[in-house]
Write a structure and sequence with these properties.
This protein has helices at about 5-25, 30-35, 40-55, 60-70, 70-80, 85-95. The protein has about 100 residues and is mainly alpha-helical. The longest helix has 18 residues, at about 5-25.
């Protein structure tokens, strides 16, 4: 059985996750954080860290745009809603001090 390198597979999986999150604008970052412990902003932070670990450079804004598919401020204006009291309480419980 022949298969592509692990890096190719992992990159394809990442792109599929990124595209899924771009399409699911109804799912708020706070919901992702409360349920999975990471969000779109985490992905962009991990991207920035991975690039820098390999000697590259990218701004926080450019990394976010790569994940969101548009400038972060534009995404927030178009898709972000105010977090409910329940969402905020769940976040405070699951991520104290964050």
């Amino acid at each position: 059985m022949t298969r592509p390198d692990d890096i190719e597979i992992e990159a394809a999986i990442y792109r599929r996750l990124r595209d899924h999150l771009r399409a699911r604008t109804d799912v708020q970052n706070i919901d992702l954080m409360n349920l999975a412990g990471f969000c779109r902003n985490c992905l962009s932070t991990w991207m920035k860290e991975a690039i820098e670990e390999r000697g590259g450079e990218i701004t926080k804004e450019a990394a976010r745009e790569s994940v969101y598919g548009m400038p972060y401020d534009t995404w927030r204006e178009k898709h972000q809603t105010e977090a409910s009291a329940e969402q905020k309480a769940a976040f405070a419980k699951s991520h104290p001090g964050h």
